[in-house]
Design goal:
Number of helices: 1
Shape: elongated
Number of domains: 2
Structural class: mainly beta
Distance between the termini: 82 Å
Number of strands: 23
Oligomer: single chain
Order of helices and strands: EEEEEEEEHEEEEEEEEEEEEEEE
Strand content: 35-45%
C-alpha cells in the first residue's frame, strides 16, 4: 500500500489482537480531506502533502490544530515504521453541510497484494465507505481485461471526494478486481451543523473485532488466510455549549440607593461543547424573569469554558441612585449579551434566594 487519506474528523485505534495474537501492520500512507481540502503524507494533487512539501506541510507537526493526531502512530518523515495504531480526531465548525473522509493504507503481513476486505452491518445516514487499492497498480488484470488500478486515493478521495460503497471497483476503467489485492480503506461522514455547533469526527482502526450493542457499521481488512485482520469504524459527535448560572448568593435584606454590595456567583457550561468568552450580568427585577424594565447592576467577564467547567467569582455591584424604593429580586444571567449560541437559551438566569428592599 502506498497511500492513506482521511477527511474531516477521524479517529484511529490500533490495539493488540485477541488471545495473545497480534496483527502485523505497517502504515504506508495516510491523509485527511476536510470539506475538499486534503492533507496527505504522499498524495499527488493533495492540497497539503508532506512528501511533496506542498502547502508548507513538511511533517505531521505542521498539521492544523483541528486535526489531532497525537494519539496515533502514523508514518512521517521521522517515523518510517509505524504500526498505524492510534486515534485521530478532527474538529469541524461552521453552519452548513460538511464532508469528512478518512483513508488509511495499512499493509498486513509480508505480501501487501494478498489482502481483501468487506463491510459489516448497516451504515448510518451520512456514512459512505470504500475498500480498494490506493492507486499504485496491481500485478493482475481486472474483470475488464486490462491492468487494474484502484481509484481510492487519487480519484475518489482527492479529486472527486466521494466513495463508492464497494470493494475493489475501478469506476474509471469500469471494472472490478477478482481475488485479492493491495487493500486500503476509507470511510466518509457527511453531516449538517447549525450556527454555534461543532462536530468531532472520529475514525477508529483496531485489530479487535467490534462487539458493541447495537452493532456498529465497520470495515474489515484481512490477508488471504485471515491471520492478520483490522477493523475500521467512525462516529460523529455534534457539540454545542450551554451556559447557566448555577449559584448566586443572597443580597442584603435592606440597602439604600447608591450603595454597593457583593454577589458570589458560579457560571457553568452544562453543554457538550466549549463556550467562547462571555459576560454574566446582574439585575434588579420586580419579578423572577429578566425583562426590559429590569435595572442592570453590573456585568463581569467569563472566560471560555470547556464542557462541565465552571468559574466562581465575587462581583461588587452598585444600586443605581434613581432606583425606585421597593422590594426587588436579584437576577444573575449568563451570556447576558447573547453572544453565544447555546443548546438551551432559556436557562441562563438564576434568582437569588431572597429579595432586597431598596430604600432612599
Amino acid at each position: 500500500m502506498k497511500t492513506f487519506i482521511a477527511i474531516a474528523a477521524a479517529v484511529l485505534l490500533f490495539v493488540s489482537g485477541v488471545a495473545g495474537a497480534q496483527t502485523v501492520s505497517l502504515n504506508m500512507d495516510w491523509g485527511f480531506n476536510i470539506d475538499g481540502e486534503t492533507y496527505c503524507f504522499d498524495g499527488l494533487d493533495c492540497t497539503y502533502d508532506i512528501i511533496g512539501y506542498t502547502g508548507g506541510l513538511t511533517g505531521i507537526g505542521d498539521l492544523p490544530s483541528f486535526i489531532d493526531v497525537t494519539g496515533i502512530d502514523l508514518i512521517d518523515i521521522t517515523n518510517l515504521n509505524p504500526t498505524g495504531l492510534g486515534t485521530v480526531k478532527i474538529m469541524v465548525e461552521g453552519a452548513g453541510t460538511h464532508s469528512v473522509i478518512a483513508y488509511f493504507d495499512i499493509d498486513l503481513g509480508a505480501d501487501a497484494y494478498d489482502e481483501n476486505g468487506m463491510a459489516l452491518n448497516d451504515p448510518v445516514v451520512g456514512q459512505t465507505w470504500e475498500i480498494d487499492e490506493p492507486g499504485d497498480g496491481n500485478s493482475g488484470n481486472g474483470t475488464g481485461g486490462i491492468p487494474y488500478f484502484g481509484d481510492l486515493l487519487q480519484f475518489n478521495l482527492v479529486i472527486d471526494g466521494m466513495l463508492d460503497n464497494l470493494v475493489y471497483h475501478d469506476a474509471v476503467d469500469g471494472q472490478d478486481l477478482p481475488g485479492n489485492g493491495d487493500a486500503a480503506m476509507a470511510i466518509g461522514e457527511e453531516f449538517d451543523l447549525a450556527d454555534g455547533e461543532m462536530a468531532i469526527v472520529s475514525f477508529t482502526v483496531t485489530d479487535v473485532m467490534p462487539t458493541s450493542t447495537p452493532p456498529v457499521f465497520h470495515l474489515k481488512q484481512f490477508d488471504a488466510d485471515e491471520s492478520n485482520t483490522i477493523y475500521f469504524m467512525s462516529s460523529v459527535e455534534i457539540t454545542i455549549p450551554d451556559l447557566r448560572v448555577s449559584s448566586v448568593s443572597k443580597p442584603p435584606r435592606v440597602e439604600r440607593r447608591g450603595r454597593r454590595f457583593s454577589i458570589k456567583h458560579t457560571t457553568i457550561n452544562v453543554g457538550n461543547g466549549e463556550s467562547d468568552a462571555t459576560r454574566t450580568c446582574f439585575y434588579l427585577s420586580t419579578n423572577r424573569t429578566k425583562g426590559r424594565s429590569d435595572k442592570r447592576l453590573r456585568c463581569t467577564s467569563i472566560p471560555e469554558l470547556l464542557p462541565g467547567e465552571y468559574i466562581r467569582k465575587t462581583t461588587r455591584v452598585r444600586i443605581p441612585k434613581n432606583t425606585r424604593p421597593r422590594r426587588y429580586y436579584v437576577l444573575a444571567c449568563s451570556d447576558a449579551y447573547n453572544s453565544e449560541v447555546e443548546s438551551n437559551e432559556s436557562n441562563n438566569c438564576k434568582v437569588a434566594g431572597r429579595r432586597i428592599r431598596v430604600t432612599k
